[in-house]
Every structure is written in structure tokens, then in C-alpha cells.
């Protein structure tokens, strides 16, 4: 890579991303999150990204609504089209997508497969202070 080549999603992502199967129960998804020390997992069905589940989703959309996390499937929380970025996307495009859609964690896809995740900590290591401040002000809005 030349010194002037723009940084790509693959350069900043963490590559050890794991999927929770869409048919897996939320109690198992929570165990995966604990074991991996993450707050969100991509939901995959037949090796395809179908959504994301966060620890907050499990609490707010399952437990707080009186549902049993051992009976609710991760796929039940997958709604809409999941946002993702191609591994060759430039850093500025990654930042733009995360800011525009207020996304804190972004799956990275290559050849239709999940190859990594980009989180705010990955950004913090790879962007300028100004870019990070803009990201934080765009994404971390008060409820």
C-alpha cells in the first residue's frame, strides 16, 4: 500500500467478528456477547447478514416486554435492512455511513460474507481527533 493510499474498512476493522445464527435464542446470544466481551452481534442466516442484536435489544425488546429470552430467537429482533460496508470502502465513507445512520457498530462484508466489524473504538484508533468529535456528536445523541 502506498503512503498516500486512503485507509479502507479492512484496515481498521477487527477481523474476529462472530455471527449469532438467526435461529439462536437470545439467552445464548447474551452468553456469546459475554464470552466475546462485545455489546452487539451480527445476526446471520445461511451465512448472510440479516441484522444486528445488541445487549440493549435483549433487555428492552425482550425482557422488559415480558418475553422469555430462552424462547425468543435472534432473528425475531432483526428488522429492516442491516447496514454494512464493503471491506474496500474508504474510511471517509465508513465514517459518513456511521454518522448518517447513527451506527456505533458496522459489519464489514467481503464477497457476501462477514469478515469483520468496525466499532467506535476502531475508529478512535484510526481517525483524527476532529473526525472522532464529529462522529461522536453525530452518533451519540441523547434520547
TrEMBL record:
CDD domains: CBS_pair_HRP1_like. This is CBS domain-containing protein. Gene3D superfamilies: CBS-domain. Residues 13-70, 77-134 form the CBS domain. The lineage of its organism: Bacteria, Bacillati, Actinomycetota, Actinomycetes, Mycobacteriales. Keywords: CBS domain. SUPFAM superfamilies: CBS-domain pair. InterPro entries: CBS_dom (IPR000644), CBS_dom_sf (IPR046342), Diverse_CBS-Domain (IPR051257). Pfam families: CBS (PF00571). PROSITE patterns: CBS (PS51371). The keyword Iron does not apply.
Amino acid at each position: 500500500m502506498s503512503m498516500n493510499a486512503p485507509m479502507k474498512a479492512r484496515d481498521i476493522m477487527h477481523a474476529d467478528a462472530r455471527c449469532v445464527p438467526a435461529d439462536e435464542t437470545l439467552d445464548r446470544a447474551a452468553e456469546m456477547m459475554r464470552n466475546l466481551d462485545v455489546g452487539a452481534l451480527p445476526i446471520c442466516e445461511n451465512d448472510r447478514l440479516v441484522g444486528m442484536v445488541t445487549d440493549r435489544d435483549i433487555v428492552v425488546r425482550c425482557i422488559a416486554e415480558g418475553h422469555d429470552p430462552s424462547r425468543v430467537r435472534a432473528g425475531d429482533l432483526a428488522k429492516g435492512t442491516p447496514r454494512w460496508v464493503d471491506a474496500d470502502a474508504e474510511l471517509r465513507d465508513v465514517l459518513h455511513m456511521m454518522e448518517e445512520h447513527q451506527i456505533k457498530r458496522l459489519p464489514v462484508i467481503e464477497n457476501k460474507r462477514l469478515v469483520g466489524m468496525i466499532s467506535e473504538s476502531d475508529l478512535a484508533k484510526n481517525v483524527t481527533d476532529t473526525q472522532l468529535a464529529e462522529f461522536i456528536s453525530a452518533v451519540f445523541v441523547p434520547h
